[in-house]
Amino acid sequence: MSEILTYINNKPSIKVAESFVHLINSVPLDNWDYKESLECLQNNILNEDRSITSGAFSNVRGTWFEWMVSVDAYNHWVEHNHNLLLLNLPNISRFDSSSLYVAEVYDFVQDLRSKLESGLDIQMITSNPDYVIIDTTRLEQYFERKKNY
Question: Residue 107's pLDDT band (boundaries 50, 70, 90)?
Answer without folding.
Answer: very high
